[in-house]
Amino acid sequence: MRVLFVGALAALTLAACGQSQSSNPAAPIAASPGAWVVDKDASKLSFTATQTGSAFEGEFETFSADIVFDPADLANASISIAVDTASAETGDRQRDTALPGSDWFKAKEFPSATFVSNEVVETGEGAYEARGKLTIRDVTRDLVLPFTLAIDGGKAHAEGGVTLARTDYGVGQGEFSTDEWVGLEVGVSFVIEATKSE
Amino acid sequence: MAQSRYTKGAIILHWLIALLIVGQLCGGLYMVGIPNEQASLKFQIFQLHKSFGVTILLLSVVRVAWRLTHKVPPLPEGMAGWEKIAARATHIGFYILLFVTPLLGWAYVSVAPFNVPTVLFGVIPWPHLPFFESAANREALAESLSGFHEFAAFSIIGLLALHVGAALKHHFLNRDDVLSRMLPFVRPRS
C-alpha cells in the first residue's frame, strides 16, 4: 500500500525580473524576484504503487511549495516542497488508514516530507532537473527530480516525476520492508500550475 | 404455561450467528493455508475474516441482551439431570466463546507484527485494542494470542458437534420440540 510522497516541484519563472535590484535578504521568498504562487486546486501530487500485486494510485491532498525560478537566472532558482504525509488518499479506506501509521509515514512523528533543491539545471528545451534532498520520515537522500516547464506570460505549467524505492526512506517497516505485500517501487509524479507573484 | 417456541428475535439471532460462525470456521481454516504467493487473495480473506468476526461480536452483544430480557422455553420434561446440565453447559460455553473468540482475534490483530488497520468491509474503521497495540514484546504476544484464538475456534467446533448432535437426537430419537422451536417457519409438533 503505500506509498509515498514526494517532492514535487515546480518550476517557474519569472521573466521580467531580470533587474537585479539588490533585494533584501531578509524578505520572504514570496517577495523575491522570480517567486511563484502555486495554484493548489490545479496542481497535483500523485503516486502509483502496488499492493498484493495490484497497482493503485493515490494523491497527496495537501502540500506546499516555495518556488523561485527564472529560466534566465537558474543560479538563483530554488524549489522547496513540503508534503503533508497524513494527506495521502488512495480511494481505499483500509490503505488510507494504514498510510499515516507507524509502519508507513508515521505521520504523527514525521508530519511532512520535504524536497529542497540545491540547484536547478537545464537539460534541454523546456526541460530541467532539480537536484536536491528528499526527506521522508527521518531519512534524507539526494534526489534528482526531472521536470518540464512551459511559461506563458505570468502562468507556468510544470510536470515531472521520479521513481523511488520506498524502503530507501523507511516507508514500510517490519513485515512491509520487503515487496511481499507491497511493491518497493513507488512512482511519484506532479503537475504544478503556478502564477508569478507580483 | 411456558411458551413453546423461542421468540422471533432469538431465532433470527441464533441462525444469523450460526451461519456467520460456520463461515468464519471455514474461512479461518482456509485462509491460514493460503500461500503468501497468493498475497491478494490471502489479504482480502483476512480482511473479511476480521469484518465478520467483529460482526459476530456485536451481534453477540445484542443476543445476550435479548437473552437476558426474554424468556426461553424450558427444557423438555423427562431429560435426565446430567442431560440438562450438559445442555446448559453447552449453551453457556457458546456464549462465552461468542465473545472470547472474536476478542482474542481482535487482540491478535492489534498486536500482530503484520500491522494492518481493520476497516470493516472496507468501509467502517475499527480500532485496535489499546493495551495490545502498545504492548511490549509484540511478537511473542501475537503468537500466544493466535494460538488461543485457534484453540477457541476448535472449542467451538467441539461444542457445535455436541449441540447439533443433541438437537438431532431430540428431533429424531426423542421426537420432541427442542429443534423445531428454534427453527423458523416450523410449527411445533402438536
What does this structure look like?
- The complex is a heterodimer of chains A (198) and B (190).
- Chain A has one helix and eleven strands.
- With 198 residues, chain A is mostly beta strands.
- In chain A, strands 1-4-5-7-8-9-10-11 form an eight-stranded antiparallel β-barrel.
- The radius of gyration of chain A is 17 Å and the shape is elongated.
- Chain B has a two-stranded antiparallel ribbon with strand order 1-2.
- The longest helix of chain B is centred in the last third of the chain and has 37 residues, at 138-174.
- Classes of the chains: A mainly beta (198), B mainly alpha (190).
- The interface between A and B is medium-sized, with 16 and 15 residues.
* CATH top-level class of chain A: Mainly Beta
Radius of gyration of chain B: 19 Å
Using the 3D structure, state the CATH architecture of chain A: Beta Barrel
Q: Which quaternary structure do these chains form?
A: heterodimer
Write the element-wise H/E pattern of chain A from the N-terminal end onward: EEEEEEHEEEEE
- Helical stretch count of chain B? 5
Shape, principal axes of CA atoms of chain A: elongated
The number of helical runs of chain A is: 1
Can you summarize the main beta sheet of chain B? 2 strands, antiparallel
Computed over alpha carbons, the radius of gyration of chain A is 17 Å
Written as H for each helix and E for each strand, in order along the chain, the element string of chain B is HHHEEHH
The amount of beta strand of chain B, in percent, is under 5%
Superfamily (CATH H level) name of chain A? Lipid/polyisoprenoid-binding, YceI-like
List segments of chain B where confidence is low: pLDDT < 50 over at least 5 consecutive residues: none
Q: Per CATH, what is the topology of chain A?
A: Lipocalin
- Helix content range of chain A: under 10%
Number of strands of chain A: 11
Number of domains of chain A: 1
Instruction: Characterize the largest beta sheet of chain A: strand count, sense, and whether it forms a barrel.
Output: 8 strands, antiparallel, barrel
Contiguous runs where pLDDT drops below 50 for at least 5 residues of chain A: 1-31
Beta strands of chain B, count: 2
